Amino acid sequence: MKNKMFKYDFLIVGGGLIGALTAYALYKKKFKVLVIDKKNEISKDKRTLAVNANSKRFLEQLNIWNDLKSKPQPIEKIIIKDYINLSPLLFNNKNEPMGSVILNKELHEIVKKKLKDLNIIRSGINISLNDLKPSKLLKINNSHYLFKKIIVSIGKSININPYQKSIIFNKGHHSYVGFFKHENDHKNIAYEIFQKEGPMAVLPSPSLTRRKSTFIYSTNKKTSDQKIFSIIKKNFKISHGRLTFDRLINIFPITPHIKKFDKDLIFIGDSLRSIHPVAGQGWNLGIKDIQTLCKLTEQYSLDSKIFNSIYYSKRILESTLYLGFTSILNTVYENQNLFSKNIIRVGFEGLRNFKFVRELFIKQAMGKINLVD
Ligand SMILES: Cc1cc2nc3c(=O)[nH]c(=O)nc-3n(C[C@H](O)[C@H](O)[C@H](O)COP(=O)(O)OP(=O)(O)OC[C@H]3O[C@@H](n4cnc5c(N)ncnc54)[C@H](O)[C@@H]3O)c2cc1C
Predict the structure, then answer these.
(1) Between 365 and 110, whose confidence is greater?
(2) Contact criterion met (CB below 8 Å) for 147 and 266
(3) Protein residue whose Cα sits closest to atom 51 of ligand 1
(4) Worst-scoring range by mean pLDDT, 34-43, 47-56, 313-322?
(5) Which domains does the chain show, CATH number per domain?
(6) Distance from the CA of 174 to the CA of which of 53, 142, 217, 328 falls in 20 to 30 A?
(7) Residue 286 Cα, ligand 1 centroid: separation in angstroms?
């Protein structure tokens, strides 16, 4: 038993929201998969996820969506306001909601339980990414393993070596995330409000009463709980009625980055690219990484030498566009000079007046545009 060697198709390093779902999707496609995560404890992530229509369908196909018991809240309308344009932009989609809001922790626990029941996840294992190479003997918990493909899904922890091959964008931003209850129904409306200090998103939060919302406020300026509460009160007192804030606000550093091509390792989710949460699309892009990877396994053998480069070529364009778009959006709002203000005005007018631009915006928000098939 001591010298036994285990042969697997995939090793997935990192069992966060994307790594765990990648493992489950590949397992469903009959691959032999092992996930390792450095953490032992259960996820304490108090955030919500705005799941777009494409990602919802992905979770349905894996029979996970119906396991969510905390009442996902559909997003039926999006309102975008700012400090430059007088009237807001309104978006809705006739046939189906543009997205749904779920709890990160609940989804993560469901998927991790499935992996544990299948005995394909090992926790508390921290291996150096520098030692990882496909088809090289690897020692994990005193056993030897051989993997055809290695997927890295360690999120955006940038202190480790492979990130030195990343291109990092505007650092210094933090997101402040919390919840509040309100007197009035939220009517399944999501809001994005561009303040001078940074964007504030308010989303309906899973609850039975439709009287709970979550906020994500991102800024590179010094702020305080009171300042955040007053922004929300100013913008939502009329529509949402009396507001009661949860005392706990969680803070997340924002480090937008994109990974350069790696011939040995397949980077996925936030490890491949992480974007500013202003668009609420980081995890949704990770789902598209998984979908691309799964499709590639139908078209190419895992032994194919071009497998990794095809994967990167299919994910690089969309990743770069989202990273560029979200970074530029923040920069033009932060600059507050005449040139930036004019760009924003033109953008608002385009979205307000041209139906095809509006439809494009809605389609991309729903994850329904495939730039490279
Ligand atoms: C405030 C905020 C709000 C957001 N809202 C949305 C939203 O509404 N919609 C959306 O689509 N996206 C959203 N996002 C983005 C989304 O949260 C991320 O894209 C997503 O969580 C990334 O998942 P991941 O699995 O790639 O990384 P993570 O969730 O960070 O998982 C990484 C995992 O790897 C493990 N790990 C790390 N290092 C190692 C190692 N060396 N060895 C082994 N394991 C390791 C960690 O323990 C962890 O379990 C938001 C982001 C922020 C900051």
Answers:
(1) 110
(2) no
(3) 277
(4) 34-43
(5) 5-72+104-170+255-365 (3.50.50.60), 173-253 (3.30.9.10)
(6) 53
(7) 9
Task: Please report the pLDDT score of residue 161 as a whole number.
Answer: 47
Among protein residues, the one with the nearest Cα to ligand 1's atom 53 is 252
pLDDT classification of 158: cutoffs 50, 70, 90: low
Query: In which band, very low, low, confident or very high, does the pLDDT at 156 lie, cut at 50, 70 and 90?
Result: confident
Evaluate if pTM is beyond 0.70: yes
Ligand 1 mean position to 270 CA, how many Å? Answer: 6
Q: How far is the CA of 19 from the centre of ligand 1 (A)?
A: 9
Which residues sit with their C-beta closer than 6 Å to ligand 1?
A: 13-19, 36-39, 47, 49-50, 126, 153-155, 157, 175, 177, 216, 252, 269-271, 277, 280-284, 286
Q: What is the 3-state secondary structure (H, E, C) of 191-246?
A: EEEEECCEEEEEEECCCCCCCEEEEEEEECCCCCHHHHHHHHHHHHHHHHCCEEEC
CA–CA dist 224, 29 (Å, integer): 48
What is the phi/psi pair of residue 77, to 5°? -145, 145
For residue 308, give both structure tokens: 């990794």
